[in-house]
Amino acid sequence: MINLIFIIKAILIGIVEGITEFIPVSSTGHMIIIGNLIGFKDGVIPSYLYTKEYIDTFEVVIQLGAILAIVVLYWDKIKNSLKNFSPKKPKSGFRFWFNIFIGSIPAGVLGILFHDKIKEKLFNPITVTAALLVGAFWMLYAEKKYRKKYKTRYIEDVNLKQAFLIGCFQCLALWPGMSRSASTIIGAWICGLSTVAAAEFSFFLALPAMVGASGISLLKADIINFNLIQVIALTIGFIVSFVVALIVVDGFISFLKKKPMRIFAMYRILIGIILSILIITKII
Fold first, then answer.
1. Cα separation, 68 vs 243, whole angstroms
2. What residues form the membrane-spanning segments (predicted)?
């Protein structure tokens, strides 16, 4: 029974990751909150299952599942960019991936420098709730002011300056609950990208950041010492996150072509209010 409950919790966290990783509501924030609510965190009994190292590794592995969904959905674009990689060609793959590289630098540098301090100070329900609310109101303001003023319709037309500035906005996502997707999409609006281009650039900008962070975490993890039920839960969580992210990302892009993003801001405000009540009443 204990093992079954453990796997069910892993499935729930995988679903949460798949749904929230690429939409502007903060996957890290949701995993912290849901993990607290269902008891999927280190220190929970039985301790041989809920070790800190395992929980950290689990979160990394399911993020890789979400990343794989982006690779699958955008495989044709990735393949064509590699075929057309010459710097001399217009809208070349080299230019595209160099923009992604430049956009990844700011958050990469700050993440390396302050990773431990961020984990220590910001990974808790109070800071996540604050970030959800701050991000929500900023999203409402930015959408009203910038969304319809775009000059760059497609991600292939993003220039170096835009890429770097969007990367600077991505740094805000180091505050759990702010949302990497929300931060980069808002930054892209301000830099003159259309909403679909902003979302797609956000997806690709996530690849090096998440693969890099995941790679470092996996190198530090001692997976060989995980027990069988932990490995099973890890595998199921990865698959669930991948499948759910496939569905959600495709639907998210279709949604953005027709609808405003304020629905996500309103959701963040609602969740922020509920979490504030739960924190005040010491439920979490």
1. 10
2. 12-34, 54-75, 96-116, 122-141, 162-178, 228-249, 261-280
How far does CA 51 lie from the centroid of its chain?
23
Give the pLDDT confidence score for residue 43 in this predicted structure: 84
Phi, psi torsion values for 22, nearest 5 degrees: -115, 5
What's the pTM? 0.89
CA dihedral 157, 160, 166, 167 (to 10 degrees): 130
pLDDT in tens, 137-146: 999 999 999 9
Which H/E stretch holds residue 273? helix 262-280
Q: By residue range, what is the domain housing residue 74? A: 2-280
Is 205's pLDDT higher than 80? Answer: yes
Mean pLDDT across 126-143: 95
Looking at residue 194, its amino acid is: S
Given CA atoms 49, 50, 51, 52 in this order, what sign does their dihedral have? positive
DSSP string computed for 66-111: HHHHHHHHTHHHHHHHHHT--TTSTT-HHHHHHHHHHHHHHHHHHH
Beta bridge partners of 193: 152
- Domain count of the fold of the chain: 1
DSSP character string of 161-219: HHHHHHHHHHGGGGSTTS-HHHHHHHHHHHTTB-HHHHHHHHHHHHHHHHHHHHHHHHH
